[in-house]
Amino acid sequence: QVQLVESGGGLVQAGGSLRLACAVSGRTFSSYGMAWFRQAPGKEREFVAGFRWSATNPNYADSVKGRFTISSDNAKNTVYLQMNSLKPEDTAVYYCAKERGVGRYDYWGQGTQVTVSS
């Protein structure tokens, strides 16, 4: 069993930054990849950023490319999402997810709220 716990959300002004963390526990930090999703009120959950251990570079949604950075610290079993130049449209609940295979996410965190004020 794997558990994912997000933290680091909060209220920030437009143009500010936040760093989200996803602590991975339960057995081992073993996965095909890791990703961040977000869901704003009234909207569908959308992919934000992700990486695969076998890939050279991470992947980002066009809306966050150049502003967000996904990374990991394997010694701490933690995945991060550095969010810079935040915009009000970034406001959402952010979830981390473990990718078991291509497009298959088997574990999800509880989410952390990010609110960006104008």
Provide tags for this entry.
0% helix; mainly beta; seven-stranded mixed beta sheet; four-stranded antiparallel beta sheet; 118 residues; 56% strand
What topology emerges from the helices and strands here?
Elements lengths: L2 E5 L2 E4 L4 E8 L7 E7 L6 E7 L6 E2 L7 E6 L4 E6 L8 E10 L2 E5 L3 E6 L1
Parallel strand pairs: 2-11
Antiparallel strand pairs: 1-3, 3-8, 4-5, 4-9, 5-6, 7-8, 9-10, 9-11
Description:
- 0% of the residues lie in helices and 56% in strands.
- It has 118 residues and is mainly beta.
- The strands form two sheets. Strands 2, 4, 5, 6, 9, 10 and 11 form a seven-stranded mixed β-sheet that branches. The protein has a four-stranded antiparallel β-sheet with strand order 1-3-8-7, with no helix packed on it.
- The radius of gyration is 13 Å and the shape is globular.
Strand content: over 45%
Alpha carbon gap, first and last residue: 40 Å
**Contiguous uncertain segments of 5+ residues:** none
Number of helices: 0
User: How many strands appear in the DSSP assignment?
Assistant: 11
**How would you state the average pLDDT, rounded?**
94
Q: Rg to the nearest angstrom? A: 13 Å
Largest sheet: 7 strands, mixed
What pattern of helices and strands is seen along the backbone? EEEEEEEEEEE
Shape category: globular
Give the helix proportion (percent range): under 10%
Return the structural class.
Answer: mainly beta
Summarize it.
The protein is mainly β and 118 residues long. It contains no helices and eleven strands. The strands form two sheets. Strands 2, 4, 5, 6, 9, 10 and 11 form a seven-stranded mixed beta sheet that branches. Strands 1-3-8-7 form a four-stranded antiparallel beta sheet, with no helix packed on it.
